[in-house]
């Protein structure tokens, strides 16, 4: 199995300060990342029956969509990021072969995870930035081996 871990409840930098309908989960496989949109559910409100169809019940508790992604990635037959992205509605695979570098920083009160990709036709890498509560040791544990020197952690203690 190629699943290594995931980072949940991320917001795209371009959505900062705007009302958002989706957060992002980045699911990590041995060969790349999959960025999956995750619908935001009303906090503290009962979910309508139509929304419960996207949830999984485990041991009497409701598992949210981020947990559902994790369960699918861990248990599924998906060996690659590309295979998993095909099962994740709106998911986009980023193979490690095109990743120039990933940088974890904390310039403000929130962590920033920047993914620089080599894109055909672009002279410079294209950067996607995701904001959230990311621990440096967790990012290192999940991304350290597959990225090696392409992973940069600019956070105190990391």
How would you describe the overall organization of this protein?
This protein is of the alpha+beta class and 158 residues long. It has a single domain, classed as Pleckstrin-homology domain (PH domain)/Phosphotyrosine-binding domain (PTB) (PH-domain like, Roll), CATH 2.30.29.30. 20% of the residues lie in helices and 39% in strands. The chain has four helices and ten strands. It has helices at 49-52, 65-75, 81-85, 136-147, and strands at 3-12, 22-29, 32-39, 56-58, 61-63, 92-95, 99-105, 111-117, 126-132, 151-154. The chain has an eight-stranded mixed beta sheet, sandwiched between helices. The protein has a two-stranded antiparallel ribbon with strand order 4-5. A hairpin with a 2-residue loop joins strand 4 (56-58) and strand 5. The longest helix has 12 residues, at 136-147. The two termini are 28 Å apart. The model is unreliable at 43-63 (pLDDT under 50).
What topology does this entry show?
Layout: E1 3-12, E2 22-29, E3 32-39, H1 49-52, E4 56-58, E5 61-63, H2 65-75, H3 81-85, E6 92-95, E7 99-105, E8 111-117, E9 126-132, H4 136-147, E10 151-154
Parallel strand pairs: 7-10
Antiparallel strand pairs: 1-2, 1-9, 2-3, 3-6, 4-5, 7-8, 8-9
Structure summary, number of beta strands: 10
* Overall outline: globular
The CATH architecture designation is Roll
Q: What is the number of helices?
A: 4
So, the CATH homologous superfamily? Pleckstrin-homology domain (PH domain)/Phosphotyrosine-binding domain (PTB)
In order across it, which strands form the biggest sheet? 6-3-2-1-9-8-7-10
The secondary-structure element order is EEEHEEHHEEEEHE
Number of domains: 1
Given this structure, which CATH class is correct? Mainly Beta
In terms of DSSP E residues, the strand content is 35-45%
Helix/strand-derived category reads: alpha+beta
């Amino acid at each position: 199995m190629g699943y290594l871990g995931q980072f949940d409840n991320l917001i795209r930098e371009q959505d900062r300060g705007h009302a958002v309908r989706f957060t992002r989960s980045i699911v990590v496989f041995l060969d790349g990342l999959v960025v999956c949109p995750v619908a935001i559910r009303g906090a503290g409100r009962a979910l309508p029956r139509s929304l419960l169809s996207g949830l999984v019940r485990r041991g009497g508790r409701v598992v949210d969509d981020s947990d559902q992604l994790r369960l699918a990635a861990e248990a599924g037959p998906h060996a690659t990021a590309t295979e998993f992205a095909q099962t994740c509605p709106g998911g986009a695979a980023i193979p490690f072969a095109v990743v120039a570098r990933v940088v974890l920083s904390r310039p403000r009160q929130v962590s920033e995870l920047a993914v620089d990709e080599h894109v055909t036709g672009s002279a410079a890498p294209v950067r996607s930035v995701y904001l959230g509560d990311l621990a440096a040791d967790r990012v290192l544990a999940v991304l350290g081996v597959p990225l090696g020197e392409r992973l940069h952690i600019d956070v105190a203690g990391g």
